[in-house]
Specification:
There is one protein chain. The chain has 238 residues and is mainly α. It has one domain (14-76, 88-234). The chain is 70% helix and 0% strand. The protein is built from eight helices and no strands. It has helices at 14-39, 48-60, 64-73, 88-114, 134-167, 170-184, 191-208, 212-234. Helix 1 packs antiparallel against helix 5, helix 2 (48-60) runs parallel beside helix 5 and helix 5 (134-167) runs antiparallel to helix 8. The chain is globular.
C-alpha cells in the first residue's frame, strides 16, 4: 500500500477531548456495571428485548463526544476519519485481511493458554437471552455486529487516536488508544487479545486514514465471536 495518509489535526484541545471522553466513558461504564448486576440476578431482571436495547443505547452513547466536539467547533466528521480510505477499497481489503490473520492468531493463542486452566477469555452473553425470542436475538446481532463496531471505532480511533496522534508520538497514540479500548470492555481474561485488537484497529485507521477500515475489521471479529456464541447456545456438546 502507498504511504499512510496524514490524519487531520483536530480543532479541539487535548484536555477538551480528554474531559468529554472521560465523562462519556464513566457514564457508559456505570451503565455496563448495572447491566452486569442484572445478569447476575442482583437487580430485577427486565425483558430480554429491554436488556439488548439498553446495551445498544450504551454503545450509541459512545458517539456523543464526537457529535458534541464536531458541532462545537463546526467541523465535518472527516476529522474523525468519516471518509473513503486512501488507496482504494482493494488495498484496504488486503490490509483488513492481514489484520484478520493477526487478530485471529492472537485470539486463538490466548484461548489455548487459558484452556488448560479451565478458563475462557469472554463470557457468552447470548446465553443470558431466551432461545425462543427471535426479536431479542435479532437485535443482539444488530448491536454486536453493527452498532458496536461503528460507535466504538468513531470514539476510540476516530476521536481518541486522532487526538492523541496530534499531540503525541504515534507509538503513544497506538498504545494509549489500544489500552483504553481493552479496558473499556471490562473483561480481564480477554485483556491481552483485546489489546492486540486495539493495536490492529489503530494500525488500520492510521494506514488508510478512514474509520471505515477498522469498522469493517471490528464487525468481522464481532461477527465471528457471535457465531461461536450461537454454536455454543443452540448446538451444545454433550
Amino acid at each position: 500500500m502507498q504511504r499512510s495518509p496524514e490524519l487531520a489535526k483536530p480543532p479541539w484541545t487535548y484536555w477538551e477531548a480528554a474531559l468529554v471522553v472521560g465523562l462519556t466513558l464513566v457514564t457508559v461504564w456505570g451503565g455496563l456495571w448495572l447491566g452486569a448486576l442484572v445478569v447476575r440476578g442482583l437487580l430485577p431482571n427486565p425483558s430480554p428485548v429491554m436488556m439488548v436495547l439498553v446495551l445498544g443505547m450504551g454503545e450509541s452513547a459512545l458517539v456523543a463526544p464526537v457529535i458534541w466536539l464536531a458541532r462545537r467547533h463546526r467541523v465535518g466528521w472527516h476529522v474523525v476519519g468519516w471518509r473513503h480510505p486512501a488507496g482504494g477499497w482493494w488495498e484496504t481489503a488486503k490490509a483488513i485481511g492481514q489484520a484478520m490473520v493477526w487478530g485471529y492468531a492472537a485470539m486463538l493463542a490466548w484461548g489455548l493458554i487459558l484452556l488448560p486452566l479451565g478458563l475462557r477469555a469472554q463470557q457468552n452473553i447470548l446465553a443470558a437471552l431466551p432461545q425462543d425470542d427471535p426479536l431479542a436475538l435479532g437485535l443482539m446481532v444488530l448491536v454486536v455486529v453493527g452498532v458496536a463496531p461503528v460507535c466504538e471505532e468513531l470514539l476510540f480511533r476516530g476521536l481518541i487516536f486522532t487526538t492523541l496522534n496530534a499531540y503525541h508520538r504515534p507509538r503513544t497514540a497506538y498504545g494509549l488508544s489500544a489500552l483504553l479500548f481493552a479496558l473499556f470492555h471490562f473483561q480481564p481474561l480477554a485483556f491481552p487479545p483485546l489489546l492486540v485488537l486495539g493495536l490492529l484497529l489503530a494500525h488500520l485507521y492510521r494506514r488508510t486514514g478512514s474509520v471505515w477500515s477498522p469498522v469493517v475489521f471490528h464487525a468481522l471479529i464481532n461477527g465471528f465471536t457471535f457465531l461461536v456464541w450461537v454454536v455454543e447456545v443452540f448446538f451444545p456438546q454433550g
